[in-house]
Amino acid sequence: MSFTTGLAVAGVVLATLVLSVLGGMLVTPWVLRAAARRSEAEGEVPPARDPGPVPPPPGRVVPAAGPRTAASAPVPPPPAGPPVPAPVPSAPDPATGATPSDPGGPVGTEAVQTLRGGTWIGILERLAITGCLLAGYPAGIAVVVAIKGLGRYPELREHPVGAERFLIGTLASSIWAAATGLLGAAILGVLR
């Protein structure tokens, strides 16, 4: 193998690994959001989100707790009318990807908190899968998936809400890594 061919092979390997990692960082969250929207459209009810304490309407004074005196007369109830909804953020939460339309489902906050470190694990998973295919060792993919599944098993057993996110994310990430690895291996086959 000549120096220029070796340099081209190294460039293809590096470009394939970078494409696998960076592309997977875009594809996997997109698939998770699409799955959440699909679940909601099919009628699956996402878990209700507690808006927290709702402040009193403007101009209304809330009496302090304690013994009543003549000066602290009871405040009449507010006039009947539609309840005032709590303000809901319109932009997605950057940490979870959840938006007001999909607070639960595969990208719900509880699932994200359960599967901490998922971004780094996904990066390493894509590097390993793509590297196995570039090295001509596709059986290594089974090892990568087995290690990931066994490593996450205790968390998923305690918090089953994260299982759906784990499966969807792992499949999306693995498919992307395998596709880029096969593309890179095909290019390497032409160069050799």
UniProtKB/TrEMBL annotation:
UniProt keyword annotation of Coiled coil present: no
Region (Disordered): 39-108
Compositionally biased intervals (Pro residues): 48-60, 74-92
The organism's place on the tree of life at top rank: Bacteria
Transmembrane segments: 6-32, 127-147, 167-191
Keywords: Membrane, Transmembrane, Transmembrane helix
Nucleotidyltransferase keyword on record: no
Biased composition (Low complexity): 61-73
Protein name: DUF4190 domain-containing protein
